[in-house]
Amino acid sequence: MSDTMKHSLLFVFVGVLILLEGATDFLFFSGSWNSALVILNMGLISAIMAIGVNIQWGFAGLFNVGIMGFTALGGLAVVLTSTPVIPEAWSSGGIGILMALVLGALTVVAAVMITRNMPAGKARTLVLLAVMASGFFVYRAIFDPAVGRVEAINPALQGNIGGLDLPVLLAWPAGGLLAAGAAWLIGKTALGLRSDYLAIATLGIAEIIIAVLKNEDWLSRGVKNVVGLPRPLPYEVDLQNDLSFVERAASWGMDPVTASTVYVKAGYAVMFAAVLLVILWMAQMALKSPWGRMMRAIRDNEVAAEAMGKDVTRRHLQIFVLGSAICGIAGAMMTTLDSQLTPGTYNPLRFTFLIWVMVIVGGSGNNFGAVLGGMLIWFFWIKVEPMGILLMEVVTSGMAEGSPLKSHLLESASHMRLFTMGLILLLVLRFSPRGLIPEK
Amino acid sequence: MDLLNALVALTNYVVVPGLAYGSQLALGALGVTLIYGILRFSNFAHGDTMAFGAMVTILFTWWFQAMGLSAGPLPTALLALPFGILGTIGLALFTDRTVYRFYRQQKAKPVIFVMVSLGVMFIMNGIVRFIIGPGDQRFTDGERFVISARTFKELTGLQEGLAIKTTEALTVITAVIVVALLFWFLNKTRTGKSMRAYSDNEDLALLSGINPERVVMYTWMIVAALATIAGVLYGLDKSFKPFTYFQLLLPIFASAIVGGLGNPLGAIAGGFIIAFSEVTITYAWKKVLTYGLPDSLAPDGLVQLLSTDYKFAVSFAILVVVLLFKPTGLFKGKAV
């Protein structure tokens, strides 16, 4: 069997799993088309994130463990792009916040200039400290009262500065841009670090981004969440009230409620698939181009590539920004799908480490592998829980009714998820370290 | 102006919690640093190793409590600790046998080891949640305070009280003993010296007949013991929750890196640097300043540099700043 055949069959396998999820309630399948589409949608988004990570790791060997931060920034972009402007917030404190932020940025720029231009020594340290400290206190003096005024406005619903009131689809590229900007800043400072140090630094920076989203209520409403974000597709209720839609649903033999939910989810699936295909096509083109070959050369032997005159630091920055932007786009899509931004739910197990599992299992260095890994691992992430419960029911079937061990085992079955993910990762790393679809 | 009260407030809210948290971080960071120094990778599973150790200790504690065993004024967990350590050593050696050894023999790149430790992290996390559940577990018993705020006020007649929890005192004392033992072991014993030699220069150590598998085995045993002690002390002082331990990984790494990976002294220094900066930057200084300054200068606001919600972010901000100026940490760590 040729490789192409084998790899296509793997994709067919994932497709069949999702179809079975919709078509049958045998074993752990739920037999609901809604559930199948939910898995498909998040699988598509996961596949995009996996491509982003694969570009950084598989193409260039950059070990970025801060994916969660870029995903969250993408989510923030949805709020900043598509929610309505809140004029009171802008008139009471928005300008002050902006001024304070500009001032803070200027302080950092000044500090960088001082480090660059003054000769090292005591004088430089003192000037640097003085500039940073005074900058910080002036920033807080302007920032704090402005934030207080903004957050006081109708805090049950708003208390933030709102967004630009643009169509929500524009938030997707905006998410990419926001993540790219952050990645550029981070890359400028952190990319000089060696592998493990870089990994921990990105991990930390992602946590800082989440801390900001959780606490700066004026920006993201923090843990109060932003709900009811606009969506690109009609609401189910409107469809159910639409006579022509109800008639069409009846002609397919579906009741209007199910038909409307399936219709909306399928709509998202089409949109996500389109984005995925575009990004996949671009990543494939990039990989095949001279640029892609250069990246792999740098990955395989940095010293040799440098000797050939390649600017390794710049290329690393470039790919770091590109990969992070893709994660930002995926983050924005996810927030659009949920119609809400919930900063409290971002956690590195789900948004960083799971994406890594997808890339490794799929096959790092191969874009199709990343897509396959994203879809497959997401399916298991959702389905391991019912599988675990099923397994435990079989295991405990011989035990006495009501025994404490039996109830404990059944209750704990849902925690099998992390265990299984770890096991899959370890097995793949051991027996198929190049993944299901290896790099060519 | 009242300097004595200011000092007491400072000790109560900054020094004592900082010392306890710093000791916990330092013990955790020592484990991370030892693995990095000898096995040459960042062990992402360390936080969950701590959780596993603490979990085994908690299970034994509950068993002992059910049997009516107690350590008097001290927490029963101290009696259970040796069993927790043994259990964790077993797990660590088993993991090394089944997982890490393969990659050592393959001479895999350090970054592959990091990936593998991710897998181990997932599995350990799953096991802990499977056995004890994801919720909060309290297992502290015995005397709550070495000295409570009220007693202190009665004793000294000061306005401000000073409270020292038993767990805080215990943490610091245990940490001092453990660190002393560790340094004695590394500097004076034959095995310790061979570990240091292996860490400094692998090839030279192999040439002089040091058995690498033995060095690795001892490292895992020491790391498991350190992780369990750190995990139990943290659990006694705060509370035990699997997810919190996973999150602890981050400040622990920050400590190890700020000090310089692979450098035990650096890990301890890093632990205290991170702990004290977290506490001082998020502490509202109003009380201390009101006591310490003349009335005319007393502050109006809370005088807090950052809100306490940013506690977590502080350790990384420090980490990033340190790495910018010293890419391998303050004490010149390794880079593989």
Describe the model:
The complex is a heterodimer of chains A (440) and B (336). Chain A has 440 residues and is mostly helical. Chain A has helices spanning 3-23, 33-59, 67-82, 87-117, 122-152, 171-190, 195-215, 217-220, 236-241, 243-251, 256-288, 290-300, 302-307, 312-338, 348-362, 367-396, 404-412, 416-431. In chain A, α2 packs across α16, α3 packs parallel to α7 (195-215) and α16 packs across α18. By secondary structure, chain B is mostly helical. In chain B, 73% of the residues lie in helices and 1% in strands. Chain B has 13 helices and two strands; from the N terminus they run ααααβαβαααααααα. In chain B, α7 packs across α9 (212-237). At the A-B interface, α7, α15 and α18 of A face α4, α10 and α13 of B.
In short:
By secondary structure, chain A is mostly helical.
Produce the secondary structure layout.
The complex is a heterodimer of chains A (440) and B (336).
Chain A: H1 3-23, H2 33-59, H3 67-82, H4 87-117, H5 122-152, H6 171-190, H7 195-215, H8 217-220, H9 236-241, H10 243-251, H11 256-288, H12 290-300, H13 302-307, H14 312-338, H15 348-362, H16 367-396, H17 404-412, H18 416-431
Chain B: H1 3-38, H2 46-67, H3 77-106, H4 110-132, E1 145-147, H5 149-156, E2 164-165, H6 166-188, H7 190-200, H8 202-207, H9 212-237, H10 242-259, H11 264-282, H12 286-292, H13 311-325
Antiparallel strand pairs in B: 1-2
Helix pairs in contact in B: 1-6, 1-9, 1-10, 1-11, 1-12, 2-3, 2-4, 2-9, 2-10, 3-4, 3-9, 6-7, 6-9, 7-9, 10-11, 10-13, 11-13
Percentage of residues assigned to helices of chain A: over 70%
Mean pLDDT metric of chain A: 91
Distance between the termini of chain A: 16 Å
Q: Structural class, from secondary structure content of chain A? A: mainly alpha
Secondary structure class of chain B reads mainly alpha
Compute the number of helices of chain A. 18
Shape of chain B: globular
Strand content of chain B: under 5%
Oligomeric state of the chains present here: heterodimer
Strand order of the largest sheet of chain B: 1-2
Largest contact between chains? A-B, 43 and 49 residues
